[in-house]
Amino acid sequence: MSRRLLRLPAGLRPGPAVVLAVTVAVGTLVALGLRAPATPTNADAGTSAPAPAPQLSGPTLDGGRFDLATARGHVVLVNVFASWCGPCRDELPLLVEAERRWSPHGLRLVGLNVRDGTEAVRALLDETRATGLTVLPDPDGTRSVEWGVRGVPETFVVDRDGRIVERQRGVVTPAWLEQRVAPLLSG
Amino acid sequence: MLGELGTATLAAGLACATLTALAWLRVALFGAPARPARLGAAATLVAAVAACALLETALLRHDFSVRFVAENGGRQVPLYYAVTSLWSALDGSLLLWLLVLAGYAALLAGQRYPARLHAYAMVVVSAVTMFFFALSRFAANPFRPVDPVPADGPGPNPLLQQHPAMGVHPPLLYAGYLGLVVPFALALAAPLAGPEGRRWLRLARPWALAAWATLTAGIGLGAWWSYAVLGWGGYWAWDPVENASLLPWLTATAFLHTALGRAAGRAAWNSTLATASFILVLLGTFLTRSGAVTSVHAFTDSPLGPMLLGFVLLAVVVSTVATGRRTARPARRGAPMLSRPTAVLVNGVLLVTIAAVVLVGTVLPLVSEPLGGVRAAVGPAYYQRTAVPLAVVVLLLAGVTPALRDRARGLRRLAVPGGVALATVALVGLLSRPGLPALTAFGAAAFVLAGLAGQLVDRLRARGRVVGLAGLVAHAGIALVAVGVAGSSAYGRDTEGTIRTGETLRVAGASVRLDGVDRSAGDGGMAVRARLRLTEADGTRRTVTPALRYHPARDATVTVPAIDTGPLRDTYVTLIAVAADSGSATVRLAVNPLVGLLWAGGALTTAGGLVAAVGAARRRRRPPESAGDRRPAPTAGGGQRPASVAAGGPPHSPAAGDPPPPVPAGPGVAG
Amino acid sequence: MRWRAALAVLVLTALAAGAGVGMLRSAGGTGREDRVREVAAGLRCPACQGESVADSQSPIAAAMRQVVADQLAQGRDRAEIRRWFVQRYGPGVLTEPPAHGATALLWAVPALTLLGAGYAAVRTLRPRRAPARAAAARPAPGGHAARRAWWAGAAGLVSLVAAVAVAADRLDRPPDQPPADPVAVTVQLAHDLETQDRYAAAAQLYREALRDRPDDTIRLRLAFALLRAGDAGAAEQTAREVLARTPDSPDGLLVLGLAQRGARSAEAAGTLRRFLAVAPEHPAAPEINRLLSTGS
Q1: Fewer CB within 10 Å, N- or C-terminus of chain B?
Q2: Which residues on chain B are in Cβ contact (under 8 Å) with A86?
Q3: Is B356 in Cβ contact with C110 (below 8 Å)?
């Protein structure tokens, strides 16, 4: 009796009928999921809630010392770069120029040099006329990982209170500097 | 000019395929003469050949007014890679797909099969061909014009211009994928064809075997490509493209086993597995071709994704309705617990479960987001914990099954292989510590190989013709692959370090000393080579030169590994980075034991499958067919040469490029 | 015969014991416990596609391996290290996210498949009697049914092609959009800055855009921005550059006139009148009229 009640239309056996139902459900789900705009994940969103910047201090390439904690009150651009990275080479002059232009307004630029050789960085700085740049060597890359660096180049903006307010994966553009960094300096 | 001609050819092919499907439907329903329908299949093939030829001509003549050429061609590309760039990107590879599909359709059209079964199967194959022609014409037309016409193109992806195997791998893979359309079509046609439908399984077997063997070769070549050309150090990364090729292989393997012997009792299994295999081919195409898995955004950019998804769903619905009907099934005797039918079904259950594991691992990133979660990621660790143990059990089963055939001696036949397996486990386990999965895999492989050797001896003693040799060879191949996988993952050693000129990097008895770094320009790019003095564990020395090649046209850096292949182990050297002053280099040195067994095993399995396909095609021919089935040989369309049927496709049927596995973002690539 | 069987059993037992020991040894670990590798294999390389930190050759992955090694040396355990990485890279850094929500499917789907297929296998193996009813063989479709099937089949096939054609048209990618025109982006940014009353910065961006694309519409926007930034001299000069090419450009005349007025030049009224003559319908015309009537 119950068998008869369970008989499905079109003479389908229960197994295939289940397959059919599941297929339609999964298909709808996938279709809906793909139609919906992808939620911006942390991975590619430029902005996220400001977080305190990890500490960053140590001897610099030219023998001095740098400590991010003493740079409070400044807006600090932390540029993660390496001599083996082509795009870094291209963006360095832009960053150096930005620091020169905006240092009166409280901008500082520091380069975090990932897995690189001293000679190679010096050559790069000479070539890009960025010899004045404060460079913190990060020979094994652990500092960059501490900062959550995903690739080079990557640039962080640390505000006057020592929080990371912006991060740019890949090269920075004049427009980005204008839009993301300049407002912090005026305020 | 070429562009308009190409678009017109695609439209003509679409019309041909549609008319062919309709013509076969008339044959099936009204018993109309089959000759026009066969001619239609031939015409469709001609259109596919013409479309491919036109795009090749455009590529070779650097006609950059054709979009595909503007995006994937280049004046610097060497002739060979200019030819293979047809399948180096989506739109062009779809043409190759069409060529192979239309080739199979024409081959199947030329067969002398029971009339209605044949006609319905051809309706299905023609409808699939029609869909892909429509896709190519409307959604992914490679012949669309470009304005303004560029002076030069970037050339195909540099990874696809690195090795001549690019000319073979994708075509093989496509031949394997699309060969599964024939069992699919026959399984769908069987319930519609009345009594003659019961013969579908016998007819499908040679096609399935040939497709399976080709697919095996394609997957093996893909793994080899990944290892020898891509230079990331491994051969299998469980990435979506690889998984997509594994899925139909798993279900097709299960199908080949359930279709053996007295398969009548497993009718539902056979039709389900045959249809599932091709549906998984379509699903894999959707997953990898639409960009849905790597990036959701790519999906909405191309109309291809939604359409392929729609077609997959349509195929599932149609095949479920067609094969899932309530039919009267013949009576069946119960089988004893330990019998071949049991083993075959357990094998089927396990393979289907492995397929489910791979499928859910591949699809999850896609569905986890709409389900409210974040975009979940599935790594190799998941597969190692799920698919690998199941695969070891499947392997063990392959060793047990032959003994079940011989009821009289039964389990006693397992004594010797069992002893060999236990001895292997004891010996390997006591001498080294490869880890539990690898150790059981060694044991299972020894079990299978010893059992196969026993069978071979038995058959040679019987002095008759050695029957079933193909099966023995194929299973031996699988066992060797298992040993290769287990050995290379358990005993592989690698190290990585930055060394200055004159310094040495060592691992597992092998060492490399940096002699120097050379830079050179040419071939449309720059190359950095490290000259390294390699000393192997056995003391032999030679110079190896792994390289990094930079292709400015695509702004991509490609790693070219140096592999020193030995009988028992490979020494694998890759260059990771070079200091700007050329004074030091970062090098990865790996010793990969037993990798050679993978390639040997893959080759054996393929060979076994092909021989079995030829055998199955012959066997099918031997029992005289009823006179009613005989039809005059077609003058056009697929030939009737049995050999080419058995081989599963036109000898030079090519296929499209799955840009193979993971491409590590090299230095200088933004994250 | 019997002693041979006994011997066989003995040998097999001994081998089984050996194998058992071997397995136990292996179960204890592989003897080359690479804890760094083990933890690194559970992390996804952020700079690559689908590779774990253990396998990737990218420099960031190498640095991450170093971090894992350092932290292990400090005595932190796997879970702590994973948490450390999640804090910095988000949950996407784990190759195996913790089981919750959708990830439960990873285990549920294979388990259900195993159960379902196993049940089907058991049913297949169970003996079955022939059904009481005679097999309802589907008869070859007769004339009427066949015709119906024909029309249905034909309609289905044709509608499949039609569906693809229609859907392709609707879903087609936007016609060959070049990947973001940098000049357009710059102009847009400058425009945004203008709405925030930051005219000097906007003018700077317009200058940059002009360097890449000397275009009079951008030049006019630059002139307006300069005017609002209070740099009347530069605005006048820019407007003159535009007017040199198109002497009757209404916007050019407008900016020039306003700039001259800002510089208290005597020519201002004349220029603005010309503007009114060229473009009486211009949105700014009433305002200019008012200016002229009150000012002169």
Answers
A1: N
A2: 668
A3: yes
Using a cut of 0.90, tell me whether the model's pTM lies above it: no
Q: What residues contact B148, with CB distance under 8 A and at least 6 apart?
A: none
Q: How far is residue B576's CA from residue B560's CA, in Å, rounded to a whole number?
A: 10
d(CA B145, CA B149): 8
- Say yes or no for a CB contact (<8 Å) between A151 and C58: yes
How close is the nearest chain C Cα to the Cα of A142, in Å?
5
Which burial class, exposed, middle or buried, applies to B407 when counting CB atoms under 10 A from its CB (0-12, 13-18, 19+)?
exposed
**Do A75 and A142 touch, CB atoms closer than 8 A?**
no
Percentage of residues of chain A with pLDDT beyond 70: 82
Closest alpha carbon within chain C to A84: C59
Could you tell me if A9 lies within 8 Å of chain B, comparing CB atoms?
A: no
A107-114 and A134-138 as β-strands: parallel, antiparallel, unpaired?
parallel
Structure tokens at B567: 């009988």
Q: Summarize pLDDT for B504-561 with one digit per residue, the tens.
A: 999 888 999 999 998 887 656 678 899 999 998 888 899 999 988 877 666 667 788 9
As a whole number, the mean pLDDT across chain A is 79
DSSP string, B51-79: HHHHHHHHHHTT-TTBHHHHHH--TTS-H
In angstroms, rounded to a whole number, what is the distance separating the alpha carbons of residues B346 and C118? 8
CB under 8 Å to B218, separation ≥6 — which residues? B169, B172, B173, B174, B175, B176, B245, B655
**3-state SS assignment for residue B330:** coil
Token pair in block for residue B46 = 């001609």
Phi-psi region of B512 (alpha: psi -120 to 50; beta: other; left: phi over 0): beta
Decide: B579 and A120 in contact? Cβ < 8 Å. Answer: yes
pLDDT, averaged in runs of 10, over chain B (671 residues): 92 96 94 92 97 95 90 86 88 93 96 93 96 92 86 78 82 95 95 87 94 96 87 82 93 92 78 95 85 52 77 91 71 68 91 95 76 66 89 92 69 84 91 87 94 86 72 94 92 86 89 90 76 88 88 72 88 84 85 92 95 86 45 36 33 35 35 30
CB contact under 8 A, C201 and A144: no
Residue whose tokens read 């955004």: B297
State the count of interchain CB pairs (< 8 A) between A and B.
Answer: 114
Residue B623 DSSP code: S
Cβ-defined contact of C192 to A141 (cutoff 8 Å): no
Range in A43-52, B540-549, C179-188 the model is least confident about = A43-52
Report the alpha-carbon distance of residue B426 to residue B436 in Å, rounded.
12
Q: Which two tokens stand for residue B574?
A: 């890759």
Contact (Cβ atoms closer than 8 angstroms) between residue B570 and residue B227: no
Q: Cβ distance B15 to B32 under 8 Å?
A: no
| 8 A C-beta contact, residue C242 and residue C249 | yes
- Shortest CA distance from B141: residue in chain C: C168
CB contact (8 A) between residue C63 and residue A141: yes
| All residues at 6 or more sequence positions from B256 whose CB lies less than 8 Å from its CB, including other chains | B205, B208, B209, B212
What DSSP state is assigned to residue B295?
-
Q: How far is CA B159 from CA B77, B164, B526, in A?
A: 13, 11, 15
Could you write out the three-class secondary structure of chain C? Answer: CHHHHHHHHHHHHHHHHHHHHHHHHHHCCCCCCCHHHHHHHCEECCCCCCCECCCCCCHHHHHHHHHHHHHHHCCCCHHHHHHHHHHHHCHHHECCCCCCHHHHHHHHHHHHHHHHHHHHHHHHHCCECCCCCCCCCCCCCCHHHHHHHHHHHHHHHHHHHHHHHHHHHHHCCCCCCCCCCHHHHHHHHHHHHHHCCCHHHHHHHHHHHHHHCCCHHHHHHHHHHHHHHCCHHHHHHHHHHHHHHCCCCHHHHHHHHHHHHHCCCCCHHHHHHHHHHHCCCCCCHHHHHHHHHHHC
